[in-house]
Write a structure and sequence with these properties.
The protein contains no helices and ten strands. It has 111 residues and is mainly beta. A hairpin with a 6-residue loop joins strand 5 and strand 6.
Length: 111
């Protein structure tokens, strides 16, 4: 299983970023996928999850209405569109299957 995140960076409060996760080595379209994040000094926390078909999504309260998880099963790619970013969103963001994690991509929200 290979999960490679990209798209992180430095953004000002109120800005947007789109994270991508390229997946390989398993049946992507059959797998529920998700995003989690870990801020400095804090435990890793759930952000969002999406069903294999993309028809069902679920979000942490802290990101609901600002973040959108989606997937392109033809491209074996998972996305996280993040809008209206806040300094509290600063963290390393990880793409995950139920049993595997990517290496993470850093998102920093700061003026």
């Amino acid at each position: 299983v290979r999960l490679v995140e990209s798209g992180g960076g430095l953004v000002q409060p109120g800005g947007s970023l789109r994270l991508s996760c390229s997946a390989a080595g398993f049946s992507f379209s059959s797998a529920s996928m998700g995003w989690s994040r870990q801020a400095p000094g804090k435990e890793r926390e759930f952000v969002a999850t999406i069903s294999g078909s993309g028809g069902s999504t679920y979000y942490a309260d802290s990101v609901k209405g600002r973040f959108t998880i989606s997937r392109d099963n033809a491209k074996n790619t998972l996305y996280l569109q993040m809008n209206n970013l806040k300094p509290d969103d600063t963290a390393v963001y990880y793409c995950k299957t139920p049993s595997n994690w990517g290496q993470g991509t850093q998102v920093t929200v700061s003026s």
